[in-house]
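look at this stuff:

>
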Amino acid sequence: MGKYIEIDGSMGEGGGQILRYSLALSAVLLKPVHIYKIRAKRSKPGLRPQHLTGVKALAEITNAIVKGASVGSSEIWFEPRTRRGGYYKFNIGTAGSVTLVIQAILPALLYADNDSTVEIIGGTDVNWSPPIDYMRFVFLKNLESFGVRASIEVKRRGHYPRGGGHVVLRVKKLSRSLSSINIVERGEIKGIEGRSHCVKLPSHVAIRQARAASKKIEEALGIKPRIELEYYEPGRDPHLGPGSGIVLWAYTSHSIIGSDALGERGKPAEKVGVEAADKLIDELMKEKAFDRHMGDMLIPYISLAKGSSRIGITYMTLHTLTAIEVTKKFLEEIDFRIIGGLNKPSTVEVKGIGL
């Protein structure tokens, strides 16, 4: 293989995101990468189980040669050789985030030789990562503008610390380059929906989360949200649990904007609902097309798309700036233009490579 692209895992926000984006781009572009100082700025640096699952998953999908792939390792060498679709099953073995594994593997699966079905077992609704409902109803829906066709089926949820969540990701391989997008302002709010869930807990937890979120949104925006409830009868609840959470999303003229909050021991259900509602209201007030989390997740897609893209983000985060820096290491020919600044509503422009 050719020369390795060198990635300093401590740059920018210095977390697992650098590893995920580096591996995702390496897998898509079939460029070998050496990542060192992995998660150097975290309290437990090095690879954790969920990161290792991402590495192993991409190694299998790309038939890669890998060195350094073990829990706690602070550097890895990754040499992808091909991109193969098909059926895969990966078990994180903890409550490590399923959604972060999806984030890492989706780009490679889009460019694979066949459609794919991937089963992943781990945490679906855990701290420091997008909840599975955000990925289903916000992330994948927004990616449809690029020509992405993918879906997520949730067979069972998994919360910290026990995990045990089970999801199925289905991905249609691309038949042509990703389309560029020009979506800066959100336009008008067409409606707000959501999903409030609880497992191994009384049904009133999900109901109270939804009621509190609904009340807050109606007071602030004059819109009555439609929030689906998900709870289980005792004895018929297949989860390892307990756990709860709520994801909200607003349909706007040009995009979908999301927010979420997780339940935790000692945190009233009403507080969970209000937290998610407050976040959504705040994102909508910025009037940009994509929320802060969607902003950083779009960077690889606008970079690989054919033609020039412009996206409006409610808040320019360090995550987004880090995603841009990682992408520039792999695609030296592309030039990002940022209008705005850190923690401010911003626009990102780039001419993609049209892979």
Notes: The helical segments are 16-29, 49-62, 98-110, 132-143, 204-221, 269-285, 292-304, 318-330. The first helix runs from residue 16 to 29.
